[in-house]
Design a protein that fits this description.
alpha/beta, 16 strands, 48% helix, 10% strand, globular, Rossmann fold, six-stranded parallel β-sheet, Substrate Binding Domain Of Dnak, Chain:A, Domain 2
């Protein structure tokens, strides 16, 4: 495998664990994505990367050149129309992926409320909070009774045809008014995806601003609908994450145990496997096979789910999935949906490892299928683990980079941040807002989304390092969070090592990392709630669009990332990617990068990876300037008039929890 010394992105990945593994003879025989990229030997199609290749009918495909009359589509579609259609379809596909995930979580939630799964309703406080959002009576009702009504109400929102998605009401009032005025309130989750696909069919919607109006509505059905439902109901069922210390990277695999990795996105499967892995019968079976026990480890976003709730180690992220298998130490990789590469079944061909698909939606050649049945979740999990245990004695040569595992502190949900800042009796975002106002914290930067084989793994680290050095508190989700964990950024000690004076002071006082692991890619809805809480706390404007906060998916790969980016923009938060498939259409590009700000108070941005941190800081500073907090406030000595104002409830500059007095 030449890539061990030739591929730039491979050479820079995972703090050396992948390079360490690739230098072993057993791994050199494995073909990975790095090989396939190098073997292709071709650059990206300019029409495709510019968004101007149209293939939605069979008269083409048509390759459009903006401004050249002879190079419009056969139907007459212009570059702006084609680019808008293609972009909107990315949003629809990403929303559909989150929606199908969320629907399964809601169905599992209902089954749990009925007592049909091995799980239970754990977070009763959040159950009551969500019941109030949906207008469900609490009284002295049993938690399962409340949960059942909540689950049924939630499930109805997927097929709802009229009205609006319930959780839109959780957004700042000003933003809700904008959505209403613009006509982008989602009526039902599935309806908006279907309408988006219809409107981008040949010969339907042909005006790029109107196409993007529906894309905005579709994205809100994801962020404030499907994704938020999934996150909140998952928390209620499995417990809202609280800070946990754990480890990540290839070194979490165990030589003396049955290694089972869980890869995908739906936590129902992973949680059932966690329960079954403690089953006495299965543990006895593992010991009979010569193993000390069963070692579960996560991959990709399922890894994030069980990492933040159970502290289960993560073996690898999206770009490491092949390398986890190349160790030769995994008895089974259990997969469900999304981000699972077809190549994993080829990596283990001829080896003892099974790739086990579990969802009827997602089968794979050369894999074994064991359907995960929600109403028989525990039995399904036991069947899967029994198969894995049977492979342990077949294990041949293997190599585990045992010194390659990194400490992380994870599990910073919205509720955790609220409690961490204000304590049990004064839970509040007031300290965060005050420290942004007084300048200790410059603003909030979110690093979310995917990883990318064409870019160095250092990208997330370098961006985060520059952000926190400039006193920007970073919130991270998905594989981006794992990449930062491999670089030591998810430890409280990272504040001392990397953060600027103001952020370091806050982090050391609270005992938190300067980069907070907020969850999986579906959990970006937590960020919407956190931003809304900051608005409601006061002092930083009356809408998300006024907050000194900006997001980026620096190495986006999946259509889900585009849907996430769009629902943040539609919610008033500026978002910066390293590229967007729009540059082949001038008017559409101008609308996306500037004109959309007039619609929703925020827009997209594009920057080279090396410039993303600077662009994020500039966007934060622009918001600080508009709020009049661009300079650190002077100490204020109180006179009697100020004391009388304080007693009357007037806020004073530089005062408050965390402020300078």
């Amino acid at each position: 495998m030449a890539k061990s010394n030739g591929c730039d992105s491979c050479n820079d990945i995972t703090g050396g664990s992948t390079i360490d593994l690739l230098n072993q003879d057993l791994a050199k025989k494995v073909r990975t994505a790095y090989d396939r990229i190098e073997d292709r030997g071709m650059s990206a199609c300019l029409f495709g990367s510019g968004g101007t290749c149209c293939r939605i009918c069979n008269m083409g495909p048509c390759q459009i050149i903006d401004g050249v009359e002879a190079m419009v589509g056969i139907c007459g579609a212009t570059a702006d129309t084609v680019a808008a259609r293609n972009f909107a379809r990315l949003v629809a596909a990403g929303t559909a992926a989150h929606t199908d995930h969320a629907r399964e979580m809601v169905r599992g939630f209902i089954a749990t409320a009925k007592g049909e799964t091995p799980h239970e309703i754990k977070d009763v406080a959040k159950l009551h909070t969500m019941a109030e959002v949906f207008g469900i009576e609490i009284g002295d009702r049993d938690k399962n009774e409340i949960a059942l009504e909540l689950g049924e109400r939630a499930l109805a929102e997927f097929g709802q045809q009229e009205g609006t998605v319930t959780m839109l009401k959780r957004a700042p009032e000003k933003q809700q008014k904008i959505w209403k005025e613009k006509g982008v309130e989602p009526r039902g989750i599935d309806r908006e995806v279907v309408e988006m696909m219809h409107r981008t069919h040949m010969g339907v919607d042909q005006e790029y601003k109107n196409i993007m109006k529906q894309a905005a509505r579709c994205s809100l059905a994801d962020g404030w609908g499907a994704s938020m439902l999934s996150t909140e109901l998952t928390d209620i069922m499995f417990g809202t994450p609280v800070p946990k210390r754990s480890i990540i990277d290839l070194g979490v695999l165990r030589a003396d145990m049955v290694n089972v990795t869980v890869h995908g996105h739906e936590p129902l499967l992973a949680e059932s496997l966690c329960l079954a892995a403690e089953d006495e019968e299965l543990l006895a079976l593992a010991k009979k096979a010569g193993a000390k026990g069963i070692n579960l480890a996560g991959v990709c976003c399922t890894g994030n789910e069980i990492l933040m709730r159970r502290g289960i180690p993560v073996a690898g992220s999206f770009i490491q999935q092949e390398m986890v298998l190349a160790t030769g130490a995994v008895e089974a990789m259990v997969v469900d949906v999304q981000c699972v590469m077809q190549s994993v079944a080829q990596v283990v061909k001829g080896k003892h490892t099974d790739i086990i698909t579990t969802n009827y939606r997602a089968k794979m050649p050369d894999a074994i299928h064991i359907q995960f049945e929600e109403d028989e979740a525990y039995e399904s999990a036991k069947k899967i683990l029994t198969r894995a245990i049977g492979n342990f004695k077949k294990r041949g040569d293997f190599y585990i980079p045992i010194d390659k595992k990194f400490d992380v502190v994870v599990g910073f949900s919205h509720e955790t941040i609220n409690y961490m800042l204000g304590g049990r009796f004064r839970q509040s975002y007031r300290p965060l807002n005050d420290n942004i106002i007084n300048g200790r914290i410059r603003g909030i930067g979110a690093l979310v989304g995917c990883e990318h084989y064409k870019h160095s793994d250092d990208v997330h680290f370098e961006i985060a390092k520059e952000l926190i050095a400039n006193n920007v508190l970073v919130l991270a989700t998905g594989c981006a969070a794992q990449a930062l964990g491999r670089r030591g950024m998810l430890r409280p000690e990272a504040a001392t090592e990397y953060a600027g004076d103001g952020l370091r002071e806050v982090c050391e006082t609270v005992g938190m990392p300067p980069v907070l692991h907020v969850g999986s890619c579906v959990d970006n809805s937590r960020l919407l709630i956190a931003l809304t809480a900051m608005v409601k706390e006061g002092g930083l404007g009356d809408d998300i669009s006024e907050l000194p906060a900006v997001g980026s998916a620096p190495l986006w790969m999946s259509e889900k990332a585009v849907a996430i980016g769009q629902y943040f923009v539609t919610s008033g938060a500026h978002v910066i990617f390293q590229d967007l498939p729009i540059k082949g259409a001038k008017k559409f590009t101008e609308f996306m990068l500037n004109g959309m700000k007039e619609e929703y108070g925020a827009s997209w941005g594009v920057a080279e990876t090396k410039d993303i941190a600077k662009a994020m800081i500039a966007a934060i500073d622009e918001k600080r300037e508009a709020l009049g907090i661009n300079k650190k406030q002077e100490r204020v000595l109180m006179d009697m008039a100020m004391r009388r104002d304080l007693e009357a409830g007037t806020s004073l500059p530089g005062m408050g929890c965390g402020g300078e007095s």
